[in-house]
């Protein structure tokens, strides 16, 4: 990634609806060059989606949770967290998946409209082979979140 790619990502992170023409003006490239770069960034999975940022004023029905997954490593069929992560990335509502140190293999962050969807996701994950334990930690309060882009 060069400085143009980084600038394009910065612009899209702040405003996913920014037009290609506006991005081209801001980064001093042609529209076709910006379009090609965005397409490449999507193909390389650097850009994985475009999202609407929803106001936190009325999120009372929204459920956020962390899911800690442990897999059985004692079997002869060793698991591959990369394979599980690829599969998990296809489940709507799972916002991120990290491989972490310690006894937990994967830590997921889930953001869904309600408990029904959270249960559906948990039920899907329980079908994964070699899953030994799934622990759910429901978010009760969010005191701050530095990952959200502030609106200007």
Automatic annotation (TrEMBL):
Name of a matching Pfam family: HTH_AsnC-type
GO cellular component annotations of the record: cytosol
Coiled-coil annotated residue ranges, if any: none
SMART domains (UniProt xref): HTH_ASNC
The keyword RNA-binding is assigned to this record: no
Domain HTH asnC-type: 1-67
One biological process term in Gene Ontology: regulation of DNA-templated transcription
Domain of life: Bacteria
Entry keywords, A to Z: DNA-binding, Transcription, Transcription regulation
The protein's name: Leucine-responsive regulatory protein
Biological source species: Vibrio aerogenes CECT 7868
Source organism phylogeny: Bacteria, Pseudomonadati, Pseudomonadota, Gammaproteobacteria, Vibrionales
């Amino acid at each position: 990634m060069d400085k143009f790619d980084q600038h394009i990502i910065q612009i899209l992170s702040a405003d996913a609806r920014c037009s290609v023409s506006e991005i081209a003006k801001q980064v001093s490239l042609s529209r076709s060059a910006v379009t090609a770069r965005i397409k490449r960034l999507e193909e390389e999975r650097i850009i994985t989606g475009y999202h609407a940022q929803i106001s936190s004023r009325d999120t009372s029905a929204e459920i956020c949770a962390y899911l800690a997954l442990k897999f059985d490593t004692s079997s002869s069929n060793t698991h591959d967290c990369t394979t599980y992560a690829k599969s998990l990335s296809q489940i709507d509502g799972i916002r991120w998946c990290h491989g972490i140190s310690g006894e937990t293999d994967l830590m997921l962050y889930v953001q869904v409209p309600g408990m029904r969807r959270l249960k559906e996701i948990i039920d899907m994950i329980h079908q994964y082979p070699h899953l030994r334990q799934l622990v759910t930690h429901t978010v009760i309060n969010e005191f701050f979140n530095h990952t959200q882009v502030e609106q200007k």
